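Sample entry was shown:

___
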Amino acid sequence: MFKIAVRKITRLIAKPFWWVLKVFVASLLCNEGFRRSVYRYALRQKAKGRMSSFFGAENCYAKDWNDFFGKKTSLSMNQCLNRLLSGLDELSKESAMLLYDCRLMPASGAGIGIFNDVGDDLLPLFPLLQEEQNVLKTKENNYECPFILPKEADITHQVSDFGLCYLPDSVRASIRGRDIIDGGGCCGDSALSFSHYHPKNVYVFEPNPDSFSAMKEVIDANIGKIGGGGIVSVPLALSKDRCSLVLYSGGRFDGGATTDALAHRQNRYEVEAVSIDDYVREHSLDVGLIKLDVEGAESDVIDGALETIKSQKPVLLISIYHTPKDFFEIKPTLEQLGLGYHFMIRHIIYDNGFYEYVLLGWTES
């Protein structure tokens, strides 16, 4: 009884102590001077050839960036950044720099993960641009989503057509009657949104068996409300070429299903993968748009879609926030093709600075 009483008293004392500590750290993270001091510290660490974190050197963001700049590129961080920002509009540059700062200082990621229950108003280390928030809220409020999703398929505060609504009317009109490749179907929201633009068909690729059947249920229940093009559900992964992959899933509508064995997902599946070029060739598709949100495999999938991109010049909506390779190299890779693509970067979720950054690419008709 005495031990139980001591434990209860200890919890009572510790609870307000930890709450005060969290509030204190939250106030630091929201302080401009503290953020800049962390930034300078990160730059000093970068100058030594490594990334670091106040919350542990094994932070996943620090490890990704260490590996990229230590082993996978011969360019400096500034060279990579200059290539990315070249030719972009001002909002694209500011949005890219927001993600760059958040990733450069992995302390922000760990800090938010630990202290995010202090209050809903706690933003990442570099708060979102007010202009970006206003633009996103306007797009979200004006964008019609004529379908219903289950509560477990949470896309709160996200522009459901994956940023397509940011592009000129003429660009959106150019996909009418053409096929769409939707890589990473998850709950089917983007496929349903794309169907609203009257394509010939949306081919939605979802390799996660936990999500595939649930996604089909959502699509079947809503497709009649869209009045647009058809949707073809494809239970395959997209990759550089045809192969088998091991996928780790956390269950229905797991948007983070990945080939990374360290991702702490309880379900393990062997899935088949195909390249976009092979699939387009085999099914004689006329591709007007390619959307990719494939949890860090975007660069590989693009390598397997170069033939389609060169010959058909589809609109491109590509996630670039998962890895430094995607962030720094996808845009320069596409520019080197010399196809006349224009690019912008938009952040399609306005309540978190770490996720859902999309590279939008299109050519003049």
The chain has two domains: 2-115, 130-362. Residues 17 and 156 are 32 Å apart (CA to CA).
